[in-house]
Amino acid sequence: MASHYEAPIRKPLVLGDKGYHDVSVDIAAPVEGRANKEWWIVFSIALAAFLWGVGCIIYTISTGIGTWGLNRTVNWAWDITNFVWWVGIGHAGTLISAVLLLFRQKWRMAINRSAEAMTIFSVIQAGLFPIIHMGRPWLAYWVLPIPNQFGSLWVNFNSPLLWDVFAISTYLSVSLVFWWTGLLPDFAMIRDRAVKPFQKKIYSLVSFGWTGRAKDWQRFEEVSLVLAGLATPLVLSVHTIVSFDFATSVIPGWHTTIFPPYFVAGAIFSGFAMVQTLLIIMRKVSHLEAYITVQHIELMNIIIMITGSIVGCAYITELFIAWYSGVEYEQYAFLNRATGPYWWAYTLMMTCNVVSPQVMWFKKIRTSILVSFIISIVVNVGMWFERFVIIVTSLHRDYLPSSWTMFSPTFVDIGIFIGTVGFFFVLFLLYARTFPVIAQAEVKTILKSSGERYKKLREAGKPLYQMPKTTIVKDAGSGKDKKSNENK
Amino acid sequence: MASKVIHAYYDDDDVLMQAVKKVKAARHHIEEVYCPFPVHGLDKAMGLAPTRIAITSFMYGCLGLAVSIVMMNYIMIQDWPQDIGGKPSFSYIENMPAFVPIMFEMTVFFAAHLMVITFYLRSRMWPFKKAENPDVRSTDDHFIMEVEVHGDASGLTKLLKETGAVEINSVEK
Prior knowledge:
The complex is a heterodimer. Helix content of chain A is 66%, strand content 2%. Chain A is mainly α. In chain A, a hairpin with a 5-residue loop joins β1 (471-475) and β2. Chain A is globular and about 90 Å long. The two termini of chain A are 21 Å apart. Chain B is an alpha+beta fold. Chain B folds into 2 domains: 4-49 and 131-172, Alpha-Beta Plaits, CATH 3.30.70; 53-122, no CATH class. Chain B is built from 5 helices and 6 strands. In chain B, the strands form 2 sheets. In chain B, strands 2-5-1-6 form a 4-stranded antiparallel β-sheet, with helices on one face. A two-stranded antiparallel ribbon of chain B has the order 3-4. Chain B is rod-shaped, with a radius of gyration of 26 Å. The chains are: A mainly alpha, B alpha+beta. β1 (471-475) of chain A pairs parallel with β6 of chain B, so a sheet runs across the interface.
């Protein structure tokens, strides 16, 4: 059929001789099977890290923020670094599912589910930091627009920190709804395959009774499209607002108008790197190499390279504008950033973020799974240091040379960060065992145009379907089954 | 009203699409088609009206924008105006640039969530709702066409067989 046509030059997105039923079997396999030893080992490590983090959080809250390495000059360090890092990672998911949906990129379908899961889990980690940083997290509801008990004094809607509250909570909740709506047909598939009563019950509950009527699908597609249209500006707004936390202040090194696009590019950059890290492992462990192909890895590498280059341009623009502005505080801030006592962090950031993705220009490298994996981790190390450089180097030399100082984290700073990494992996590992990790209903829609089996059939000039040779006829009234061969 | 319907099972979307067109052409009423994935053009072939859910989303978005303006006007301008950073809060319009992020976020928040809630309720989906697909295979690789039977079922059965159904079930509904 013409609707399934795709240019032969396009490489198949689903490898192997796969029909519709094979897709269901492959996607349901990790959910229906049992966890192997490696899963338990990695899960135990992640859980231990998470519990260590919980301990550090309890220590911080019961003792106070003084347990961190902050001082009067560097009064904002790892907490906000980690917050921005996690929020940034949380940008790839919605970008993949929303922006790539609007651009009709079919390759998104193999990776969007996991990328969205990653988004939600990393935004949860990000959200922890401002709440812990409040010192008295039981008063966290004070950020909501409610009058406090001393009168009708409200929250300040002029503050970028309050914009953050609205942006992050809107982003988290809309991403969650987008993710869950897409999950309904896939949960329903697992529900209808389940044989154990407990599994059947759970997947019935989470699939919200998805039935798959033609009208449901019509609405489903429209809802997905509108959500994608809403989520696209939303993604861009969230990191823009996060960058306003810095850009609206008057600290040299923060007070720059380039921050919003620069932060958004950096967020997409680090988010894609994290998706790459997770999926390279997942395709192997869950045997999904036929769906998450080397072509997918290559395409993600190209996005990493492009966004890495945008980030590189932003770094250089910042330096140029600092010089060109003629403001000596600005000039000093950037000179000090590159050559001052934190030169090593700056060099690390430049190497990891600007230099390392440039190797992706070579096809051999961007199609190498091992190199892609290493680069994806290098990029996220680099992106963590980018935030550290922006935050700490801008603060550690303030207007009074007598208060110039350095920052060194305590074990609590490190523990909370490691704890969030552990928490993230705990959630992701649980997800990988219980959720349909690939949007199988969507993959089925592209199977005839982009599946290897059907591409071969089309090239051979054969039809993509065959009329069945036999029809089973059942009558509920008579209870008799008869086979007919009429429509041969 | 106890009526009799025939469930015709197909295992291919192209076969299904042709079958839907043939059954429609034979002037039978297709009650429902259950699909494991969206089949493009099926809604048109079945004669379903286009969905209006995007319009509801637009209206919800407008509502969100209005709520954010009313809320911030009351909080920042009417109830407790303050002079923050040398910028006194006496007029919503003059202070609006600072309110744009929240106006945007609340527009998106309302448009997205209320549209999804509308979708769930219109398509009758919520936790603990029982699924209504007639066969478990309809979420895997089978498409089920539900056709109403008026009078003699044998002609319809024959037609469905010709359209390439792999299985035909008559059921009381």
